[in-house]
Structures are given as C-alpha cells and as structure tokens.
C-alpha cells in the first residue's frame, strides 16, 4: 500500500510540475463525451529537443508568439485516428521522444480528439476533411514564415493517415513525406483517390498495413506499401472475441508499435516485393535486384534511403514478418534442401541456430512442403532473432499425421543463406531426419563448386 501511495504522490507531483512549467496536454476525454458526440476542435502541440516532455499549444494565426518554433528546421506532424472512448493514445509520449531523438525537428502532435471521439464513426470520418482544412491553413502560415513544404513529414495513424492525404492533396502533393500507419479502411475502401490517401499526396508516401481484414485498408496507397505478416493477424494478438477490446484493436494498433521499433533502430525489418504473402512465405520472392546495390528496402523510418529508386518503380508492394513482441524484427534465410528418398515426402521443417548459448528458431509450417528425390526445394526460414555466428544447427521434420507410420527424410544436402548480410552460406550433407526427432550438427561453409 505504501508503494502505491508513493507512486500516486509522484504522479501528482509530475502533473503539478508540468502545469507550473506551462506545459499543454493532449485533450483527455471519456466515453460520455463520445456517446454525446464531440464537435471538431483542432489543437496543435509543439515539442522540440529542448521541450521533449512539455508541449506548447500553438496559435494557428500568430506564430511569432512561439520563438521555439524554428521555421528553418524540418517539421513532423503526428496525427492520431479514431478515439471511440475519448482517451489519449498511449503511444504519444513514446513517439514524440523517439522522433526527436532521431532528428532535430519541430514536432507537432495534432490533437483533434474533439471530433475523433464519437461513438458515431461516420461523424469522425466527416471530421477528417475539416481537420485537414485546419492543418492546411496552418501549414500555409508556416510557409509564409519561411518553412519549406518539402521538409514536412506527416505521420498519420488510421484516420490520421487520410487526414495527412487530404492535407497533401490540398497542397498539390508538395509535402516531403507522408507515413501512413494502417490507414483506415471503413468508409474509404472503394473510394476514388481524391477521397482518401494516395501516392500523389506527397513527394514520397510510405504505408504500413496490419489489419486489412477489419479496420485497415487492403489495397496499396503509397509509393511503397508494407504488409506486415501479410497485413492481418499480427503475432501475439488475440484470436477470439473472448479477449475483449484487444481482439478488435490489437492488429490495428500494432502498426504504431512496429513503426516505433524502426524509429528507435531496435532492429531492421527487410521487406521483399511480392504478388502475395503466400508467395513470399513460399520463398518465391527473395530477389532484390530491382532495387540496385542497396538491396531490398527496410520497413519504417529509414525507408527514405530507397526513395529515389522507389519513385522510379511507381508503386511497390512488399511483405515482411515479425515477432509477437519487440524487438519485432525477424532474420531471413533462404534454405535449399535436396533429398534422396525414393518416394515423395510432404511435411514441415523446424530449424534452430545455436551460438554462444543463444538459440534462434524458424518454423516453416504455413503449408506442407513437397520434397522430391534429387530436386532442390527452396524454403524461406524466418528466425526470431539474428545470431552473430552459427555454431550448430538443429533440424526437425514432421508430417502432422498422428495415426500414420513415421517417415524419414534423407537429406542429401542442405544450404542456409543469410538474406540480410554478407555471411557465407552454411551447408551440410547426408543428414537422416526421423520424423519428430531433432538432429543437431555443426554446419560447414559451403563450397560453391558443390552447387
């Protein structure tokens, strides 16, 4: 009890200190506001490296009263989405801190909670255009003070992604960049480009999809579209409605968490161009030649390193997979297997890499794989972590057939190729895999003459 009282006191002191400093807070509403319905009110909270935890409410008309707003610096806008309960997004402080840590910018949190907090979703959708009008007028004022439109980056979440698009369209696509985090699908799917986000809304538009079968938008909307885990059913998210509210929002909200990992440079998620997620999982889309020497683009904040080549390619649709928790990045290997069984074998493979007491695991089970005699089978092995060096490899073959006889897979040769670095491929020859029994061995550096 004493600890709880101490923490409560500390929280109250923090709030009082922030008020004494003149800090402005994001509007905190509740469910009653959403039930009654809220009218749009757009508030702009400015944060800088000198005031990372203390927002300043900016005047829409008299910017000279805010000397901390440096118009020669780039400006990043963060725009939230639908708020059905009226509460502030729980990621706001984190995204503010991380974006300012990465780059010295004017960071503006766009607080349109009055307008987004409404149990009537259709009303919130209506307000996206009005919020965009307000932001457009503000940005034109910024331009009058010397700000460059090409140095503006908008990060929009859900409905906020379309707000960003509307602003960009009103400014004739002159904004530098729009990052859209799982753009909202309901009421926008099937609409023409002028009624939603599209690639012409900024000089560069990058989009992440995490909930295309429910709250998100299914089709590509940017110069590059990333589909994490195929754009649906994010790892670690509830699978049934029995989990309550998390069942509805977890996949959608995962987009923000993935982006935060990329800003923080927690790890790197390389994304691969492909026609479908299934083809990607099948290992048929691991060629990155179209992107030149830089290879396949990485998801998130640093994708601008591929901007020039992506603009030339038009629209690029890419896929990557993630872990259930941060660090979300997985490590990709191409796995080539040749067997010498007389009969065809069907089954699943689990691979483990071992190094200095650590273990990385890849389970290839999205479908049963066909193995034929003297025919090389190409697989994509996605490991939950990256190991600096690989001392041992473990393999397990399974068929999933409980009542049928146990089979053996006679591997003539195995080759593991790291897809995200310059590491030499690892090989092994003549391995006997008995079903459901793990076999561990030391890999060899591949001799190219053997392949």
TrEMBL record:
One of its GO terms (molecular function) is carboxylic ester hydrolase activity. Gene3D superfamilies: alpha/beta hydrolase. SUPFAM superfamilies: alpha/beta-Hydrolases (SSF53474). It comes from the Eukaryota. Residues 38-328 form the Lipase domain. GO terms for cellular component: extracellular space; plasma membrane. This is Lipase domain-containing protein.
């Amino acid at each position: 009890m004493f600890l709880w009282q101490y923490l409560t006191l500390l929280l109250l002191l923090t709030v009082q200190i922030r008020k004494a400093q003149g800090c402005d807070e994001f509007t905190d509403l509740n469910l009653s506001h959403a039930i009654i319905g809220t009218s749009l009110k757009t508030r702009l909270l400015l944060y800088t490296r000198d005031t990372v935890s203390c927002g300043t409410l900016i005047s829409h008309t008299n910017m000279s009263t805010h000397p901390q707003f440096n118009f020669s610096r780039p400006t990043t806008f963060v725009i939230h989405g639908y708020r059905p309960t009226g509460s502030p997004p729980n990621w706001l402080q984190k995204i503010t801190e991380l974006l300012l840590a990465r780059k010295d910018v004017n960071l503006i949190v766009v607080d349109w909670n009055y307008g987004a907090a409404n149990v009537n979703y259709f009303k919130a959708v209506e307000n996206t255009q009005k919020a965009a009008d307000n932001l457009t007028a503000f940005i034109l004022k910024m331009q009058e003070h010397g700000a460059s439109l090409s140095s503006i980056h908008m990060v929009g979440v859900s409905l906020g992604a379309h707000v960003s698009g509307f602003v960009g369209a009103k400014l004739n696509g002159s904004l530098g960049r729009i990052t859209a985090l799982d753009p909202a699908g309901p009421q926008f799917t099937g609409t023409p480009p002028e009624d939603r986000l599209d690639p012409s809304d900024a000089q560069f538009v990058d989009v992440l999809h995490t909930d295309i079968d429910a709250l998100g938008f299914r089709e590509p909307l940017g110069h590059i579209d990333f589909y994490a885990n195929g754009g649906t059913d994010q790892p670690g998210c509830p699978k049934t409605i029995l989990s309550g509210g998390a069942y509805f929002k977890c996949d959608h909200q995962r987009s923000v968490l993935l982006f935060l990992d990329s800003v923080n440079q927690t790890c790197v998620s390389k994304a691969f161009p492909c026609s479908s997620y299934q083809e990607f999982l099948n290992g048929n889309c691991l060629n990155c030649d179209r992107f030149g020497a830089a290879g396949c683009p990485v998801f998130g904040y640093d994708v601008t390193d591929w901007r020039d080549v992506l603009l030339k390619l038009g629209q690029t649709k890419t896929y990557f997979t993630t872990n259930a928790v941060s660090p979300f990045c997985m490590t990709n290997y191409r796995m080539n297997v040749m067997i010498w069984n007389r009969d065809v074998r069907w089954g699943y493979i689990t691979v483990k890499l071992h190094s200095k007491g650590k273990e990385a695991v890849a389970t290839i089970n999205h479908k049963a794989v066909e193995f034929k005699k003297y025919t090389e089978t190409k697989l994509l092995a996605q490991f939950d972590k990256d190991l600096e060096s690989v001392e041992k490899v473990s393999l397990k073959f399974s068929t999933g057939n409980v009542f049928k006889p146990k089979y053996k897979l006679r591997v003539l040769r195995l080759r593991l190729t790291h897809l995200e670095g310059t590491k030499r491929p690892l090989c092994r020859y003549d391995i006997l895999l008995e079903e459901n029994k793990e076999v561990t061995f030391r890999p060899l550096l591949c001799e190219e003459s053997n392949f």
